[in-house]
Amino acid sequence: MPGYEVLGEEEKKEILEVLETGVLFRYGFPTQRQGRYKVEAFEKAFAAFTGRKQALAVSSGSTALKVALAALGVGFGDEVITTGFTFVATWEAILEAGAVPVFTEIDDSLNLDPDDLARKITPRTRAVIPVHMLGAQARIQEIMEVASRHNLPVIEDTAQAAGGFLQGKALGSFGSIGTFSFDSVKTLTTGEGGMLIMDDPELYRRASEFHDHGHDHIGTDRGLEGRSFIGFNYRMMELQGALGLAQLRKLPDMISRQRMNKGRLKAALSVLKGVGFRHLPDPDGDTATFLAFFLPDAEKALAFKEMAGKAGVGLVYFLQNTWHYYRNWEHLLGQKTPCRNGWPYRAEGGRDLQYPPDALPKSDALMARTLVLPINIKMDETFFGKVEQLVAEANNKFF
Questions:
Q1: Tens-digit pLDDT profile for residues 278-311
Q2: What is the mean pLDDT of residues 88-113?
Q3: How far apart are CA 102 and CA 117, in angstroms?
Q4: pLDDT greater than 80 at residue 222
Q5: Quick check: 88 pLDDT over 60?
Q6: Confidence of residue 348 (pLDDT cuts 50, 70, 90)
Q7: E-strand spans in 260-326?
Q8: Which pTM was predicted?
Q9: Is CATH 3.40.640.10 what the domain over 3-250 is classified as, yes or no?
Q10: 251-323+361-397: which CATH topology?
């Protein structure tokens, strides 16, 4: 899935234009920068691509979540519902805001289960963060319906699904705010970096101020102005904006190539006895960064994974993955923190956040038989042949 596979002359050109000015900071220095505002140009292009009125570039997908929560006013003691299958940053941002992560089960889309969302809402719920995991859509329309009934804002964590759509509408553009990651292994990469998209001008103002130490950005220099509240430094720099501009122009082609590769690999795996594939709410809008499939039980999944590894086909078994699945977040389950007073898990007044490892039994059962094949932009005939041979041998040996 990484966009670094196609880094080339376009990215060099954009970066050199920044280096020629000597201005790496996104604000200020109007004379020296020669009219070149790469981050701002990237924001405008990304907003147009996703069909939103505003975009705000930040230093990472993780900080995009933190800024989004701040813009929505989420704070101490508030509950924020998200999924138990996501990168750790989703719930880390909630804890960083002082709020309480509440985890839902996943369904056969491998994303947040709208039915379980409805069960997890309480009077303390202040926001919902569904995640478009592994490049494909959550049931975002159903999630929005549940959230709307309870008047809850939705932050779409679209870190792994930039360029994805659902029935022609860009992922990240359904909720109040959509967040994105452009780290080194994302399809659209700026090395590090992230983005927020939204339509509400007040949300944009709050996000923009919070991501730059609270500066209100009123004035021609857009640098050091007044402050209406505290913030922090989550800015993107000009070199990242330059990379983003070039990569965004390549994104449709990158996704198209991933879809061709995924189609071939899915066809090869479809003859594996007992296999099933994850539900995609809109296959035409899939970014095709991963191919997720189910086997009848955990025993067969592990046996096939081991066999695939020996054949040179790397599969991910997320039930054992320490970065992305609830059961293996030992620092969450064990209340591990650098703070001597136990924050953010514990606080005076009775706060003691307990997360038992067996809290998501439906998700455990589904993940136990799920395997995932990463899809690259460039995949050669040798690899496709390995997968075809692997399936033939597995059918003879295991099924």
A1: 999 999 999 999 999 999 999 999 999 999 999 9
A2: 97
A3: 10
A4: no
A5: yes
A6: confident
A7: 276-277, 290-294
A8: 0.95
A9: yes
A10: Aspartate Aminotransferase, domain 1 (3.90.1150)
Ordered alpha helix ranges (H), 97-196: 114-120, 140-149
Segment 153-160 mean pLDDT: 98
**Angle, vertex CA 107, rays to CA 112 and CA 149, nearest 5:** 45
Measured distance CA(92)–CA(61) in Å, rounded = 12
In the chain, list all ranges with CATH 3.90.1150.10.
251-323+361-397
Q: How many CB atoms lie within 10 A of CB 389?
A: 13
Q: To which residue do tokens 């970065």 refer?
A: 323
The answer for residues whose C-beta is within 8 angstroms of residue 44's C-beta and 6 or more apart is 55
Mean pLDDT of the chain: 95
CATH 3.40.640.10 residue ranges in the chain?
3-250
- CB-based contacts of 399: which residues, under 8 Å, 6+ apart? 272, 273, 274, 300
